[in-house]
Amino acid sequence: MTSNQVSACCFTGFRHEGKPVGEVKAIGEIRTYFSYPANNNAPERAVIILSDVFGIFTNSQLLADDFAANGYLAIVPDLFAGDAMDLGDFEAGKIDIPEWISRHGTDATDPIIDAVIRHFRDKLGIKKIAGAGYCFGGKYVTRFLVDGKLDTGYSAHPSFVADGELAAIKKPFSLSAAENDQIFTRDSRYKFEEILGHTGQQYQINLFSGVEHGFSIRADLSRPENKFAKEQAFVQALGWFAHTLI
């Protein structure tokens, strides 16, 4: 594995302040949060946010709104078919992590992402699609960086990415990493860099000091180092998409 399996740090975090401005609609049977750029109901570029284990909740919705404010149609599909986690469940002892993970492998998750991409291409006429993956979703950005799927990808502190998945990418890839991360460790970063160097694709790896796994989407933003890193990771994704979606 280029990054480790999900563990307790993937099931904890902080809810961010703000009121989402988008709406929840359906793509087939897939519950999906949509956020459109202002005064543009038919954008040609889109960002699919492949979420952490908390799925469609305030933090991921606000992130989609931020992408929309920068000109993209941004969506958060429910990767878990109604089985996403709630903040506080882990501390309350309500989660059996291995059992939950067993319900959400590639056989269950890949078809959801495939259906969303087909909807964008065939129904909405989206010409360029970026994937932004966080923790759990980082694996699936990697899996879908192939011809006819995602056109470019960004991941923050990805979980359980296999070496072969990363080696198979055919599109540009950008990564944000935390200094203190038991899932995406220092060795993982070095392995990522080694494999990416053999893919022939453009890549970028940014490391943020003083922060932990999950910093880009569910960190405690009252800590200045978390707030800075979260905001700069978003700027990294924006810059990467502007550079590679041409």
From TrEMBL:
Dienelactone hydrolase domain ranges (all copies): 31-244
InterPro entries hit by this protein: AB_hydrolase_fold, Dienelactn_hydro
Source organism, top-level taxon: Eukaryota
Keyword Hydrolase carried by entry: yes
GO molecular function: hydrolase activity
Pfam families: DLH
Transmembrane segments: none
Keywords per UniProt: Hydrolase
Protein name as catalogued: Dienelactone hydrolase family protein
Source organism of this protein record: Aspergillus pseudoustus
